[in-house]
Model the fold of this input.
Amino acid sequence: MLDTIAHAFGYAVAFELHMPTTVWDRVWIGADLATLDGDIGIGHIADGAIAVRGEQIAWVGTRDQLRTFEWSARERIDARGLWLLPGLIDAHTHLVYAGDRSDEFAMRQTGASYEEIARRGGGILSTVRATRAASEESLLQHARKRASALRAEGVTTLEIKSGYGLELETELKMLRVARRLGADLDVSVVTTFLGAHTIPPEFAGRADDYVAALCAEMLPEAVRQGLVDAVDAFCEHIAFSPAQTRRIFSAARQLGLPLRLHADQLSDLSGAALAAELGALSADHLEHASTESLEKMAAHGVVAGLLPGAYYYLRETKLPPVEQLRRLRIPIAIATDCNPGTSPIASLLLVMNMACVLFGLTADEALRGVTCNAARALGLIHDRGSLRAGKRADLTIWSLRHPQQLCSEVGMHRPDEVIAAGRTLCRRGDVDG
Ligand code: NIG
Ligand code: FE
Done:
């Protein structure tokens, strides 16, 4: 009896004081949410609400579904008129490098091709010379500007490749800079070892020897130092053959590392098929990929990474096979490919626009390309890339009528606020960097 009274009394008190069962850190109420959580479209929830606790999204739904007696929040934000999206993800960059290649830009303006410049020792090798000579601090300082520019646009997860060292010390230096960028800017950095970007001058004419050294010494040491999250290679006539790529990838797999590949950018070497056979997370570029290769990608669940910046700078005329990607239901990611030669672009928003204008993607596809599908390309879809309870609280908040404006208008939008793991990283008007 006493028990029953105590029980009833307890409920009464809870009811009276609206005692919550959960305490959230922040809740935004009345916003339009683009959850990017379903199989198609942007997953719009009108008049929505989203709550964050600690580093995670705690709740997502409509305002009507919020039962006020079940929760309380340290901060409650009236978000009417705002759109909330996941943090953006740039899944393919080479943004740690020294020097610039504006001289080659000028050469291309007068008719020289990327391949010709590369064969004359320019291109990637000219950035290798500059990057080898640069101090770690100056590399960090320059890369920081590029990463900050991306972050100011809402990028909270960033893939960064090595590949301008092509010898152990410089590859390690680049990867350390990538890690330090993540810590300095509070963005998530996924590092990719791209020792197989091109053949270094020391090994000219001896590509197989370089591949052997890479597999036996460079890669294992970089992994031992905890600097490698994944492995990439440039499979192309001017770089590594499919057979060499296969060797590099089997070394990577033995070390338990995920793979991604620069595939079929300038010619069709069946790189995308190789990526599929070896279980890569993504095959990127793909302008020249064959139908057969794409079918293999579909069968193995490989993400297509489209890089409109490189297509644009190289004035490529062969479009990536967007229609076939759609037909085969291959997820499409979009990335800046930020690098000094073929895509000196530190703007994911610009690249989303290019993906629409140049490749014919819809705005929904472009938005998926920098959120859920970019997360898939990095093997992180369980943890980020959409607004869903339990995922990492990486959010961007925008004053927009509709998120498709992020694709249709250039230079007009910045997020009002960028949040990573529940913490505000920057607000509109903050001084970058
Ligand atoms: O993704 N294709 C190889 N790598 C880069 C180009 C790098 C460079 O030219 O420095 C790319 O386009
Ligand atoms: Fe690239």
Remarks:
- The two ends are 66 Å apart (CA to CA).
- The chain has two domains: 2-87+388-427, 88-377.
- Residues 1-16 have pLDDT under 50 and may be disordered.
